[in-house]
Amino acid sequence: MSSQKAIPSKYFYDARGSKLFEHICKLPEYYLTRIEISILEDIAPEFTQILRHKDLVELGSGADLKIRTMLDSVGRESRATLRYIPVDISESAISNALQSLLELYPELEVLGIVADFTCQLNVIPSHRPAIFCFLGSTIGNFDKDETMLFLRNVAEAMKLEDRLLIGFDMVKSQEILEAAYNDSEGVTAEFNKNILNVVNGSLHGNLDPCAFDHLAFYNEKYQRIEMHLKANCDFSARLKALDLEVEFTAGDTIHTEISRKFKREEIEELAFHAGLRIANWHTDSEEWFSLVEMSCHSEN
Ligand code: AVJ
């Protein structure tokens, strides 16, 4: 076997991948979205005033509209003063979100941006005070260096009065973590395999999703869920656009995602090293998920 094959997780999210992820969010085993929404419901009243006349910038918004929890509870009058700016790499996710938001909240100003927020924060307008949101523990997809780079970039883009709200999935028992990525309906397996369709589409490839099995497990040493696709036979595949032939032996894996889990002290350390200050900490009674409010270090 040659070195580890890998596909960056951002390629999960074509139209079908975004739909499958929306389905994952509703699965009983996938507690992340449910808990995060309940925390958002708890804190939304505090944000009613805070959000007036601001930009609500959601990084990696996706199509599932977690932010509706917030928008619902701030009420029509405040909604009419704010601008919602969803930023996502998936064009279909952005256009679906725009469509349903326009129907739900005709008074709301919405500016959808299709961009890779890991490197294109500069395309987000910055003349109004802003609340940045990075929900769903998407931050867990980054490795340590990427996390720090991302936080520093956001910190740099933030004005003194701006706030950053980040969702973190916390370390918990291996059984619960692994069940969340191995659901009984097999939706996560479909989601994982769909990344091959995306690669085939953009690189004119012939990777066969049926030739792979879904594999997701908790790596305790690195405190993260790892998702892989494991070849179930020997074969070779072509990626025409790269003029590349890739050999697979049964058992070879393609690494498709990491989903890091956090401890409170680590988040505090991350914030500190990125030049951010923790302004508020919100969690559920079991501390399975945390929504952490940060501001620029120099504010006080
Ligand atoms: C959207 C990146 C937060 O890591 O839990 C869900 C993606 N992968 N099931 C996560 C995902 C498998 C999800 N994030």
Distance between the termini: 55 Å
Strand content: 25-35%
Radius of gyration: 20 Å
| Count of runs of 4 or more consecutive helical residues | 8
User: What hetero molecules are in the model?
Assistant: N,N,N-trimethyl-histidine
Structural class: alpha/beta
- Mean pLDDT rating: 93
Helix and strand pattern: EHHEHEHEEEHEHHEEEEEHEE
Can you tell me the residue ranges where pLDDT is under 50 for at least 5 consecutive residues?
none
Identify the notable features of this structure and list them briefly:
binds N,N,N-trimethyl-histidine, four-stranded mixed sheet, eight-stranded mixed sheet, 26% strand, 35% helix, 14 strands, alpha/beta, 300 residues
Summarize the structure in words.
It is a single chain. This protein has 300 residues and is of the alpha/beta class. The chain contains eight helices and 14 strands. It has helices at residues 15-25, 31-50, 68-79, 91-104, 144-157, 174-180, 187-203, 264-273, and strands spanning 5-6, 55-59, 83-88, 109-110, 113-114, 130-134, 163-169, 212-219, 224-231, 235-239, 244-248, 253-260, 276-283, 289-296. The strands form three sheets. Strands 2, 3, 4, 5, 6, 7, 13 and 14 form an eight-stranded mixed sheet that branches. Strands 1-12-9-8 form a four-stranded mixed sheet. Strands 10-11 form a two-stranded antiparallel sheet. Helix 1 packs antiparallel against helix 7 and helix 2 runs parallel beside helix 3. The radius of gyration is 20 Å and the shape is globular. The chain starts with a strand and ends with a strand. 37% of the residues are buried. The model has no long low-confidence stretch (mean pLDDT 93). N,N,N-trimethyl-histidine (AVJ) is lined by residues 24, 32, 136-138, 140-141, 181, 188, 191, 257, 259.
